[in-house]
Design brief:
Elements: E1 6-10, E2 13-17, H1 20-29, H2 37-40, H3 45-61, H4 70-77, H5 81-89, H6 96-105
Antiparallel strand pairs: 1-2
Helix pairs in contact: 3-5, 4-5
């Protein structure tokens, strides 16, 4: 089964995000192996949280019939404005249920 690949664009540069298992398979087959595969790995979680946060903010600002403030979105979701802010800044770990609730509240 082929690996799932996501293409991310950050500051104009495009990056391919692949599953770790596929990365390790590719790394083990290259001609000059790295001294330590762990040194080659980069923790993508902070980056992904930041990207997700920016997308959540964009969804809030594109809400229908009008953009929502963080406080208005928080009221609709029954959470605090500080939680919405932290999620949008990428400093709060959130899951797909939160994303779905934001999309529904913003009528996307």
């Amino acid at each position: 089964m082929p690996a799932t690949v996501q293409i991310l664009t950050l500051k104009g540069a495009r990056y391919a995000l692949i599953p770790e298992r596929e990365y390790r398979r590719m790394a083990s087959s290259r001609a000059t192996p790295a001294e330590s595969e762990e040194e080659d790995l980069v923790d993508a979680e902070p980056f992904m949280l930041e990207v997700l946060g920016r997308n959540l903010k964009a969804a809030r600002l594109a809400a229908k019939p009008r953009p929502l403030t963080q406080a208005e979105l928080a009221d609709k979701l029954g959470i605090t404005q500080s939680f919405v802010s932290a999620a949008e800044r990428g400093v709060k770990e959130i899951g797909s249920p939160y994303v779905a609730r934001v999309m529904k509240a913003c009528r996307h």
